[in-house]
Amino acid sequence: MDKQTRNAMAARVARDIPEGAYVNLGIGLPTLVANYLPADKDIFLHSENGVLGRWHAAPAGEEDWDMINAGKEPIELEPGAAFFHHADSFGMMRGGHLDICVLGAFQVSARGDLANWHTGAADAIPAVGGAMDLAIGAKRIFVMMEHLDKQGRSKLLDTCGYPLTGLGCVSRVYTDLATLDITADGVKVVELVGDTTAQALQAATAVPLDFTALDAATRPERPLSRAAATAVNG
To answer: Is 191 considered catalytic here?
Structure first.
C-alpha cells in the first residue's frame, strides 16, 4: 500500500473518533491516526507500552528513542500527556476504560471475528502482543487493513481461516476500497473510496454486502492505489 493511501485511511479513521474518547492505536497502520486528529478536539490516545494523552510522529532528526509508541516508532508528546508502567497500561485495557481500539488485521469475518496475530503458516512468527486484551477490553474495535491480501483474495470473509484474536468484536472496517460496518444484519457499506464502484467492491469481497446506507455524496475523492485498482479492475 502506498504512502498516500495509508495516510488517507488514517485521516478517514480520525474523522470517526468523537470528542472525549479514549483510543488505543495498535501497531502498523493504526499508529498513523495520531497524526490526523484535529487539534481542537479533546481526544486521549493510549499506547499499550504505557503512554496516555496526545502525540504525533517525531520530526526527522529530533527522535528520542526512549519515547516510542507500541510499534516502536518515535513520537513527540503534546502537553498533558503521560507515560507509566506497562502493567498499568494493561490494567486500563482489561478494565474496560478504552472507548475505541484501532487495530490492523489479516482477516475479519462477516460476524466481526478478528484474526490479526498469526497466519498459521509453519514459518510465521506469532505476534499477539496485547491484541487479545484490546479486542475484549475496548468498547468498539475499528480495523484498518488492505481489502485484498497479497494473493488478491478478500480479507473480509464469511469465516476467518487464521487463528482468531477475538470473537464478534469488530464494529467497523476501513480498507483502501471502502468503509464498512459489521452489524447483526450483515456487512453494510458506509463509503466507497475513490473510483470504486459498488459492483467492483462486491466482486472484490467474499461476503454479500448491503449498500442501502451508502451515500454517494460522502465518497472521498481519492484514487485507488495501483495494486488495489489492478486487483479490482483486472
So the answer is: no
